Amino acid sequence: MRVPAVLPVLPVRDIVLFPGAEERIRIGRPASIRMIEDAVAHRGPIAVFTQKYDGAARPAPDELCRIGVAAEIGEVAPRENGLVDVAVRPFARIAVVRLISHRPLLRAEVAVARTTAAASRDRQWQATVAELRKAATDLFHRQARPAAETARLQLAHITGPGALADFVAAHLALDISAEQDLLEELDEARRVRAVLLQVADQLEIGRLRRKIRSDVEARFTANRRQAYLHEQLRVIREELGEDRSPGEQLGVELRKRLVAGGLPPAAMARAERELQRLAALHPASGDYLLVADYLDLLATLPWRQVTAENTDLASIRRALDASHYDLENVKQRLIEHVAVRQRNPTGNYPVLCLLGPPGVGKQSLARSLAAALGRTFSMLALGGAQTEAEILGSHRTRPAATPGRPMRELHRLKTRNPLVLLAGVDQLPSAMQGDPAQGLLEVIDPRQNGAFTDRYLDVAFDLSQVFFLATAQYADDIPAVLRERLEIVRLPGYSDEDKRIIARDHLLPCQQAEHGLKPEQCRFEDEALDLIITDYTREAGVRGLDRRLGAVCRAIAVRLTAEQGTFGGKVTPGLIEEIFGPPRFLREARLATANPGVATGLAWTSAGGEIMHIEALRFPGKGQIQLTGQIGGLMKESAQAALSLLKSRAGALDIDLNDLLDSDVHVHVPAGAVPKDGPSAGIAIFAAMVSLWTGQTVRADVAMTGEITLRGLVLPVGGLKEKILAAQRAGIPAVILPRLNEKDLAEVPASVRESMRLVPVETVDEVMKAALNPKPSPPPRGKKSRSRG
Ligand code: ADP
């Protein structure tokens, strides 16, 4: 079709038309619509130019692109809103020569834009054109839209590289400026290449899109595949008759174990209910695990398992004698307890509580007894137990619920008749409702422990076959609720002589074996052992001694290696000092000065016996008394009594009563490790006061214990053995004690009795006679008549 020299111009936005590609465009501007109506009336072609800028409703001539197309008008279809759809068939590329009029209609003089064709014989060119056709066909095919499909079919009928490039460009979804660039490309070869690049680009984008989509799909199908396989598996199981899921399988196994576990009927009924619950739960749920754990515990508790018990009392006694020196009373009491239990296993007996300072053999004796009885030994250290739940367990509805420690221990031991040592019952926090001591009572009380119900288990378990023993250091610290159910058996501590024997017969052989030493490689001289006992340890038990012996063995092992066998194996006091350095404990009694106003008392604390230097001081006042130090109410009363007694006897003691009434006296009891109380310091306080006023010093080699009355009598005291041993440890050779305590001396080892001077007294006068040094002359009368030495 010929292109007239002058054409009406239709400016368009959003679209670039290419020759040979029919388009449907929508127009709305009244001027454009009028122009179309006019063109249709004249049946002539129009020029279509794309606006450079999107904005203007009535673009100025220079706002149109330079190159556009000449097009025939096809069907015109009015739409609602005054818009009109127009089919346009571009047939030539044209350029504006000049604008003729702007109003009422835009008209321009145009010329066909001449394009330069490439040499059609060039092989490479032919290949490029063929490639464009193939790539475009491929692209339209892949786009799989009806319009693209139509374009693909039309493509086959387009001849000529320029027309091909234009047609393909018209069907690419490019942005406007890129399309206009292609339209304005008048060199055919360049246009073909530019379009080919765009097609290749779009093919690549399509390829990437497909890849991403297929990756996503691959993941989807993996999940579906699993679900499918699981379903198949279920069907196969059903076919094979194994119609149980792993969850159901666990339920079946648990039931088998529960039946085999020998649960009593009540517990079994409970287990049955839990099994039903389990079956209704999903195996992946948290509750399922909780119920399964609970059932597992029920199945593995030792409902029936017991170990055979040795009933031969004589052999048990022999075993205890072999493992522990002395402790006669304790062993006797243990054997009696065993004997009575054998006769009546379900009797209402108290639990024996071994009471004594550290290292006296409480725990090791319990271990020996368990071994001799053939019972499994277990120790519950009660030091950390702060809440009742630790003993009784916590209810399963609580978060992180567990059984209490006793039941956990039985579960671990796999026997229902172990010997359980409750270590440190004095370390439980005392008396409040719901405290651990109260809980422990349910465990040990024979009247209730036959049906002990741990809060977690919530079914009764019979603890009556458990052999309970307890240990404590301080009787006063045992919670009252428990004390009623315990029978205290004291282990008072050892004399130096006892320690020597224990060291030789028990501790040393163990240490030697542990360090791989033969007895002849480690031969202790008596003096060396004594030196460790008296100067390097100071304790009621033998723990420190044991440690020191271990250290000596270590040192010897090193020497044996270093000296290549030249070390003779003899352990002398010299070697001890070489290993440990100078003695740790100087004998305090030797330091007790000859100053008036200081007396050596003896205290009985839960850690054994202790010596204490009681100091008295006076200053002007009104005959009052002041007390300091860690002392309790009973000791204060003792001091009051001592002062009253002193006043009443002033004449007989040759003390000026006025002097007494014009002075206050201050009594101090040094704190030591443990608070002290009790009336047994009475005679020591009295002796210190007498010494203060008479100026007579108290003998440094005498320690004393005894309560005083206002009439000057000396009353008996407790813990005599511990006190005498404490004096011996401190190197004090004489002890003044109440005559009424004489019967207790039987408890004191004979070797100690023989090596010490024990002075039984009935009255304070006898105390004065035994304790005070002769009066110096003249007596010192200074305000401050004593000082610490
Ligand atoms: P405790 O429980 O009273 O603190 P242990 O039982 O731990 O004391 O004893 C500490 C060490 O002393 C253990 O090695 C123990 O065998 C030993 N021991 C204590 N008393 C004796 C004794 N009478 N005979 C033999 N060894 C003893």
How does this structure look, described?
The strands form seven sheets. A five-stranded mixed β-barrel has the order 1-3-4-5-6. A five-stranded parallel sheet has the order 8-9-12-7-13, sandwiched between helices. Strands 16-17-19-18 form a four-stranded mixed sheet. By secondary structure, it is of the alpha/beta class. Helices cover 44% and strands 17% of the residues. Helix 2 packs across helix 6 (188-240) and helix 4 crosses helix 6. The protein has 27 helices and 24 strands. Bound molecules: adenosine-5'-diphosphate (ADP). Residues 324-327, 356, 358-364, 502, 506, 541-543, 546 line the site of adenosine-5'-diphosphate (ADP). Adenosine-5'-diphosphate (ADP) binds at residues 324-327, 356, 358-364, 502, 506, 541-543, 546.
> Stretches where pLDDT falls below 50 for ≥5 residues?
779-789
Ligands (ions, cofactors included): adenosine-5'-diphosphate
Radius of gyration: 55 Å
> Pairing-aware structural class of the strands and helices?
alpha/beta
Widest sheet, order of strands: 1-3-4-5-6
What are the defining features of this structure?
single chain, disordered C terminus, alpha/beta, 24 strands, binds adenosine-5'-diphosphate, elongated, 27 helices
